[in-house]
Amino acid sequence: MEFSEYFPVWGSMTPQQQQTISASLVSRTVKKGAVLHSGGAGCTGLLLIKTGQLRAFILSKEGREVTLYRLFDRDICLFSASCIMRSIQFDVTISAEKDTQLWVLPSDVYKQMMEQSACVANYTSEIMASRFSEVMWLMEQVMWNSMDRRVAAFLLEEAAIQAADRLPITHESIANHLGTHREVVTRILRYLQSEGMVRLTRGAVELTDRAKLETLGSE
Predict the structure, then answer these.
(1) pLDDT, tens digit, for every residue of 177-214?
(2) Using CA atoms, how far apart are residues 194 and 169, in angstroms rounded to an integer?
(3) Phi, psi at residue 54, to the nearest 5°?
(4) According to DSSP H, which parts of the chain are helical?
(5) pLDDT digits (tens, 9 = 90+) for 152-179
(6) 16, 52, 79, 171: which is deepest, by most CB within 10 A?
């Protein structure tokens, strides 16, 4: 598969613009756990995923993480190139949750394309608006939902991503996604287990009653 098949507005660009992008693209393969972009350290560039899964998260001064969103096949990450947006800077870290193949387009090249092509500029605005919506949704969850509801909702989301009821995930990892402490997650998971919603084993959580979890996560 070529970049042109993954980039929705490719057909609206001029041949010269397409050639500029093609000449600037860098294809990368990264292993699970690799960090592609770290906080405010430079401007990595636009990331477009061929296959795999990335995680965008922020890190508090105390070292606690909270997931902003995940990226999957064909998704584009702009926060790794936030320097192209005037007056917008994000200290977001991007890491690989699975072995991932992707393209990296240098920030200066993509900025040039935005300035030359209204289609690219509009597409960029749509992506950024979508990401901001996800961040605002997260803020609402943090501010208004109890942690047990957030854990239930996270488990259901993870089960949908993995297409499985048995999730190979640690309490520490769940805590990192939700921006809380491992002990808090452990206490909630034990409660969910006592209610028959999950079964806990070493390094894994198995969903045993989706209906109850869905009810709790949507309350």
Answers:
(1) 998 999 999 999 999 999 999 999 999 999 999 999 99
(2) 19
(3) -115, 160
(4) 3-6, 15-24, 107-116, 118-144, 147-162, 171-178, 182-194, 210-218
(5) 999 999 999 999 999 999 999 999 999 8
(6) 79
Q: pTM to 2 decimals?
A: 0.82
First to last CA, the chain: 43
Q: Supply φ then ψ for residue 56, to 5 degrees.
A: -105, 125
CA dist list (Å): 214 to 169, 177, 200, 203: 19, 19, 18, 23
With a CB cutoff of 8 Å and minimum separation 6, the contacts of 149 are 216, 217, 219
Q: Identify the CA nearest to 13 among candidates 82, 105, 86.
A: 105
What are the DSSP calls for 70-89, one per residue?
EE-TT-EE-GGGGGGSTT--
Pairing of strands 26-30, 65-71: unpaired
